[in-house]
Specification:
The complex is a heterodimer. Chain A is built from seven helices and ten strands. By secondary structure, chain A is α/β, with parallel strands linked by helices. Chain A has a single domain, classed as 3-Layer(aba) Sandwich (Rossmann fold), CATH 3.40.50. In chain A, strand 4 and strand 5 (64-65) form a beta hairpin. The longest helix of chain A has 16 residues, at 170-185. Chain A is globular. Chain A starts with a strand and ends in a 5-residue tail after the last strand. Chain B is α+β, with helices and mostly antiparallel strands. Chain B has nine helices and four strands. Chain B has helices at residues 6-19, 21-57, 71-83, 95-106, 136-144, 156-198, 200-208, 213-251, 262-293; strands spanning 60-65, 87-93, 125-130, 149-154. The two termini of chain B are 25 Å apart. Classes of the chains: A alpha/beta, B alpha+beta. At the A-B interface, helix 2 and helix 3 of A face helix 7 of B. Bound molecules: adenosine-5'-triphosphate and magnesium ion. Magnesium ion binds at residues 41-42, 162 of chain A.
């Protein structure tokens, strides 16, 4: 469960990125977040990841009030979330397998469990045979699927994808979106920030429109013109 | 059950050292110099202390009797000295005995003293020992009350000179050291900062997957500690040969000064260097990390 109540975010330089956001997302929902460039979508995701703190208002994820989360608890909170970015952000010198495994090593997962889980994760994103490929040996779509496998590695409840198809050709984009939907069917809450109107229209899911730092529309179906 | 591989952290630390080779080298050079100065200074003070102690053990006062004093007067002076509280053994050295001693010390050139034989200019003296330094000034006061004494000499003035020399050295070197350590920490901070900077994107990924601050920081802290360890080992080698060289050349020049052999202090120097070096490395890296490991 994700709750934004009157969330305002003003950056140190005075830019008001969010200006009173209210929204509620239930467990297991699939949500598109859309809006013009500079509307505040990435800022919302950063607040969710607790990379930035809200200037005022409250954000609650399950039972956690993010404004009250102590410095030491932030890493543990983040394990509840899996993130995917437009630019993949893989370790260039690690193979697909190692990239996924590292996410598990970083949180102290026993190596036995890592060896068991990583191949399964790569299979989930249909990259079983690419386990030993390096990022530069893979297409954008493939790299993004590695990133998705990594996001899933620590079994998070929520997946956040900020323009996951921004650097991928249209055919591959559909594949990534299908994958995200499949992940949603596995019981995870999925938030997808995107500019791709066609895909949003095609999938007919809940769409939250952000405009000028506020929620301007929130409904199931296609994108507003 | 959490499980972290120590090889990961150590491997990353070495990779960091290697990646920023020039800066790592600079850090090691600066910290090493700093440690050599620290070590030399400490050894100098230790040597002064040992020699001061030697002087202190010589709780002796030499009392010279006036030339014109007769044998009976000298006897009465001896009685009076023995009567002073806290004075231990009192030994009389006659002018003739004193001359004989000087002749002996001169060795081959002893014949030069032969012409003094007839008209010995030396004075009769008493060497008196005292047990407790606390009574020194009482004894000196009582000696001052005795008639027929020419001069009183003791090792105090030499001890005082060395003491103030030591204090002076301490003061100068303390400041020198403070400055050097600030420079060392500063250089290490920058080295680690560079190392952190070159791994900025990796750190951000680690944070997104929920790695703790400790997990992210540990490789860099180890990197700092490695810089400290390397510096201290090199500093130890330099100190070892430098001190040995100085000790050898001093031995032949000044015989009265006792110099502590390196073998007696090498263990202390070794672990002292290691402790200070590693600590400096850890402090430097921790300071440079605070900005990056915070959320
Ligand atoms: N770190 C920052 N410091 C200052 N201003 C910022 C910062 N990050 C974003 N902003 C500003 O906040 C506003 C919202 O930015 P945000 O990145 O959330 O937009 P967005 O909806 O994700 O846009 P896009 O679709 O282009 O990615 C913009 O005006 C942007 O310039
Ligand atoms: Mg954005």
């Amino acid at each position: 469960m994700i709750d934004f109540t009157n969330v305002v975010k003003t950056y140190p330089n005075g830019t008001v990125a969010l200006n009173g956001v209210n929204l509620h997302i239930d467990d297991g929902e699939f949500v598109f977040v859309v809006g013009a460039s500079g509307a505040g979508k990435t800022t919302m995701m950063k607040l969710l990841l607790r990379e930035e703190k809200a200037t005022s208002g409250t954000i609650t994820v399950d039972d956690t009030d993010l404004s009250k989360l102590s410095y030491f608890k932030v890493p543990y909170y983040r394990r509840k979330l899996g993130v995917v970015f437009q630019d993949f952000r893989l370790f260039p010198k690690k193979t697909a397998y190692e990239n996924v495994a590292f996410a598990m090593q970083a949180v102290g997962t026993p190596s036995k469990k890592i060896k068991r889980r990583v191949p399964a994760l790569l299979n989930t994103v249909s990259l079983g045979e690419k386990a030993n490929s390096f990022p530069h040996e893979m297409s954008g779509g493939e790299q993004q699927r590695v990133a998705l496998a990594r996001a899933l590695a620590n079994n998070p409840k929520i997946i956040i994808a900020d323009e996951p198809t921004g650097n991928i050709d249209p055919k591959m984009s559909l594949e990534i979106m299908n994958l995200l939907l499949k992940i949603n069917k596995l019981g995870k809450t999925v938030l997808v920030v995107t500019h791709e109107k066609d895909l949003v229209d095609y999938f007919q899911q809940r769409v939250i429109m952000i405009d000028g730092g506020q929620v301007s529309d929130d409904r199931v179906g296609g994108m507003l013109e | 059950m959490k499980q972290y591989r120590p090889t990961y952290f150590i491997g990353q630390a070495f990779a960091g050292l290697w990646r920023n080779g020039v800066m790592s080298f600079a850090s090691i050079a600066v910290l090493m110099s700093c440690l050599v100065v620290l070590g030399s200074f400490s050894l100098l003070v230790a040597n002064i202390n040992v020699n001061l102690e030697d002087l202190g053990l010589m709780n002796e006062i030499v009392v010279f009797v006036k030339k014109e004093a007769s044998e009976s007067e000298i006897k009465s002076i001896e009685r009076e000295i023995k009567g002073i509280p806290y004075v231990g053994e009192v030994t009389r050295i006659t002018a003739d005995e004193a001359l004989e001693q000087m002749k002996e010390q001169a060795g081959e050139d002893g014949y030069l003293y032969d012409m003094m034989q007839d008209d010995n200019p030396l004075l009769d003296s008493f060497i008196l020992e005292y047990v407790d330094g606390a009574h020194y000034s009482d004894i000196m006061y009582n000696l001052g009350q005795i008639d027929g004494i020419d001069t009183i000499r003791d090792q105090r003035s030499l001890a005082n000179t060395m003491q103030s020399l030591k204090n002076g050295i301490m003061l100068i070197f303390s400041w020198f050291l403070v400055v050097l350590f600030i420079v060392s920490v500063f250089v290490i901070i920058n080295t680690i900062k560079l190392s952190v900077y070159s791994r900025k994107s990796e750190i951000s990924i680690m944070r997104y997957v929920g790695a703790t601050g400790a997990f992210i920081a540990l490789p860099f802290v180890i990197e700092g500690a490695l810089i400290g360890l390397t510096s201290s080992m090199l500093a130890f080698l330099v100190e070892y040969f430098l001190y040995g060289y100085i000790q050898k050349s001093m031995e032949n020049v000044i015989e009265i000064v006792r110099i502590i052999p390196m073998s007696e202090v090498s263990v202390v120097v070794f672990f002292g260097f290691a402790a200070v070096g590693i600590l400096t490395g850890i402090v430097g890296s921790t300071i440079s990390l605070s900005k990056y490991t915070r959320n």
